[in-house]
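Form 7-S
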Amino acid sequence: MKETNSLTEGNVLKVLIKFAFPFVIANMIQALYGAVDLFVIGRYCNPESVAAVSTGTQVTQIITSMITGLTLGGTILAGKYTGMNDKEGVKKTIGTTLSVFAIVAVILTALMFVFTPGILRLLKTPEESFELAKTYVLICSGGIIFICGYNGISAILRGCGDSKNPMIFVAFSCILNIIGDLVLTGMLGLGVAGVAIATVGAQAVSMICVVVYLNRQQFIFTFKLSNFRIDVEKAKELAAVGIPISLQECMVRLSFLYLTSVTNRLGVYAASAVGVASKYDVFAMLPATSIANALAAITAQNYGAGKPERAKSSLFAGLGFAVFCSALFWGWAQLSPETMIGVFTKDANIIQEGIPFFRACSYDYLAVTFVFCLNGYLNGRSKTIFTMISCCFGALALRMPIIYVVYTYWPGNMLRIGSIAPVVSGFMACYTLLYVLYDFRKEKTRVPNQGFKNILKEKGKADLN
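Output:
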């Protein structure tokens, strides 16, 4: 198996599309996890079960966001050392990353088992859906170790320039999940518990298959117990890059959890409509999130190799592609929101509640594309402190207070509630773009093409900041 793939040579657009396309497919397939759960529940169970899975997936998504934020730190570090052609650095990064994630998985699992009921009460989960939502979250929490393992390995592979194998692995896992959902819920009638068990089982089998495959292919890192060691310096680098990304992801998810708690107070139908919309958020923003993740790896490798202009060109190419793709979902939501909602449920009340919400929130598909892509570039530059502050500001100082005001003065107005996300994202896109342009201008005053190795020698540390 080829150990690494260079993202520092060849046509910029061609390399970006080739590397990002598996990201798009992998993220689309991964998004199917929650979407398939909701689809099966919507077809075989009652509205209370739909609301339970909608709320439950909002809770599990914050855990997934926390994990993927940390793993993106592993992607950036692996990309940096790959660009520097430092194989030993790559190996130490992998061992440290996976060891840290194993510890994090154990801690998160214990916390979720203890605090899940309290979290669901804070979210104002409808009483008729509470026990079902708790069952879903607790079962899914048992699979956190597999989420950490799979995402950690995939992040490392992407940092080494391989986005194809993670796509194949997640496709295999999703197929298992779909089969499990249909068998356990559709045929055996296990309801909410069935879709949760199917999700955890698919993740477990997928992670084990990934490890076996990579060992047989003689990957740069051998998966054996003696190699799972924490290198102190690499752990510090991982924390410096990964923790800010993880925190910003969590803040964003928390703000959406707050939105869930507000719509839950409006009843089962409003909660279900927002839950369905959250599934489309994932799909509509897939191009942006995929390009952003790809840009983080591409930028890290190119700055590691001393090719900053190539990283900038990749940013602009990625933005154009992502905006075009997101615009397709925006157009669908404007022209026929009822058909979007109808994919997941035929309940007339849910559709009626969801139409104004979809028309308003779909503008976020466009605005957030700029935020994601710009942040992806900045993350690859190790400018994670800025992106963390930006996302925390957007979530805590903008989105949550605006949600509170709208709910207080216009309760039940789904059009106004749906307008919050695009307004906030649009504002964030403006100041993030200004920061990136400032960084471009500031960089011109430095010695051109200095190279990451020379920067390390001058500064005596691994962080570009």
